[in-house]
Amino acid sequence: MKSLYSEQRTWLHGVPASVKLVFLAVLGTGLFFTDQLLTLGASALVCVAIFVSLGRITASAKPLLMGLVVASVLIAVFHLTMQHPTLAAVTVLRLVSTTLMGIALTLTTRYSDLLHVFERVLSPLKIVGIASEQLALQLALMLRFTEHFFILWRRLDDAHRLRTGKAGGFKILAPLTIQMLVAARRVADTLHVRLRR
């Protein structure tokens, strides 16, 4: 599976994966403890500045950004239709902040680094008899498949656009689901074979 991780170094590559995960967790949680537009707007500006500072590597995330724009517009239109303009702004600002930082994490953090962080954080669970390595692997795979989902989506959308000249939209959901299930089955079979050795 191809990764969105960029080998081209940026300043964020030098930040440990644990620090980036903690920042993302605190940001994501903190944004839901306030409805102040000023605070949320400042947070969104900081997140946009961090993302833009990564430079050229953000070009590979263009499909994800397009998805973010479409989702933000749809959410805003829905809340505006329901006559809740403040809620529309709050929701979009939260979505933009957390999504940009999630993409930045994906672009600048190796999968193996994330796995090591999960293993360290979950290691105390061994005391109560929980296999923390397996739980860490499941969390890391979940993140990996989220990334893989967007890559497949982009490929199918590009293929559909080449054939028809239009974006795939909902028409690519069925082949996307099939390819995701096939990929998940391959990974499961591989893990099953290796763990039985």
Automatic annotation (TrEMBL):
InterPro entries noted in UniProt:
ABC/ECF_trnsptr_transmembrane
Among the entry's GO cellular component annotations, what is one? plasma membrane
Q: Where in the cell is it found?
A: Membrane
Transmembrane parts of this sequence: 12-33, 39-57, 64-81, 87-107
- Tell me, what's a Pfam family for it? CbiQ
Which superkingdom, per the lineage?
Bacteria
Alphabetically sorted, this entry's keywords are: Membrane, Transmembrane, Transmembrane helix
Q: How does it sit in the membrane?
A: Multi-pass membrane protein
The signal peptide stretch is none
In which family does this protein belong, per the annotation? Belongs to the CbiQ family.
UniProt name for this protein = ABC transporter permease
Which source organism?
A: Limnohabitans curvus
